[in-house]
Known about the structure:
This protein has helices at 2-31, 35-50, 58-77, 90-108, 110-120, 128-143, 153-161, 165-172, 176-190, 193-219, 224-231, 235-248, 256-259, 264-269, 295-298, 313-318, 320-331; strands at residues 271-272, 301-304, 307-309. By secondary structure, the protein is mainly α.
Amino acid sequence: MEEASERAAAQLPTITSEIDELVAQIAEQVARLPGERLLHRAWWEFAAKNIMGDGEDDLESIAAMRMIDYVQSVIASTKPAENVAPDVSDEEWALLSDRVRTLFTRLTLEYQVALTASKRKGNEDLDMELEEFRFRAEVMWMNVRGKRYHCHEKQALEDILLPHSDVLVRLFGIDAPALIDELDKILAKLSRGVMDLMVELDSFRADTLNRLEQLAEDTGSTDIEELRDKVFEDPALKTRRERVGGELFGLDLFDVEKNTNIPKALLDELTWAPGEDEDFFAPGPFGGWPLRVWPTMKRPFIRLRGRTLCFDMFTLFDGFYRVMQSIVHRLAP
Length: 333
């Protein structure tokens, strides 16, 4: 047992160096890939496992979530490369996913073992209860999200925001009940929105095919492309196509300004631009490590391609009170 502990303690500098290198590789890769495509793919893969799937594989769900919140944090704290790729290839995605998964696995397991072994070396009086508390706190900090069931989020926001309605009106021109309603719209889009989208897609497909058949019968034409163009001369069908396509293939599902009426002044306070956060990768221990305060915990939105986007409903609602507290204290001390 003592020999194993000695070996683990001796490995700490190597493990720490390798984690630093892994974080640097992730940052370099994220910097040269389009952030909106990364997060769009990450969210849909997470949704496939947790919203549309059975959600039984907890490790897969956790790994999918880290591709949203940790990658968004890296985007917010890493300046984009001069030549950003137009899309994310399957090879790049697989490599980034493997690196992020490896990072969190190593920080949760072997780093923690080596760190405790190093602390115990030459210190027989180490408080192991305190050490266990540190271990549990760090592992939860890195891996656990979601403080409550989604149906309780609105009530929780009412409890913590309603007493501060006056200062919200003074600073941003929106009272607490209105802000809570707007946040509820984001929650709806990121939780049941995909199910609503599938229902709308099925209905749109049926209506389009019916209209196509009717036009073919009326005109006697068999030219599919010509008939398709005529189908979408119908303004209602054209609008539905744009709405469904924008949410299914584009960024409309995540567009905070499109889906809510949150005042721009408040949105600016809640949103990072790529590379804007200077703390996460600041010089010093744990640069870019998920043991630091993540940028998403300070501002839950990200601005990409000129659009204010929200991909992470868990961090948004878990930390919204503290985010607002920090903003208000800074603007109205």
